[in-house]
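hey so u asked for the seq, here:
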Amino acid sequence: MAQDPAGSPRIQRLRSRIPAQTAATTANQALLVASEDGTVTAASFTPDAAITGATATKRTITLENRGQSGSGSTVIGTLDLVTGVNPAAFAQSVLTLSGTAANLSVTAGDVLAVKEAVTSTGTANPGGLVEVAITRR
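ran it, structure tokens below
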């Protein structure tokens, strides 16, 4: 990607899909590898079908930086599917990014992964698209 002629920072938009999960199962998978140093400035999940959030059986989708070795667990952002958070089919839901600036920093070669967790019997995940925007430093 070439730098914007206006001189603004270059933004790399990375996309990867996560598979559908039944209510009680969760994904824990590598999604992307950062190709250059930068700062995560946005992250989202676009489900393939509607999800009805429920606090008692919530699903949390977490974007993590696993580092270059793949063993880290730095939380970049989360989407907590609690009561009132009801992503529509094919509509983008924004992850809440970490308030700690260092957690948003990525280095070329860092593995970004999605880890899910559920409460009680869980809420199904229909699968969908995860998008991450990284602004070059």
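The first strand starts at residue 11 and ends at 18. The chain has a mean pLDDT of 93.
lmk if thats what u needed
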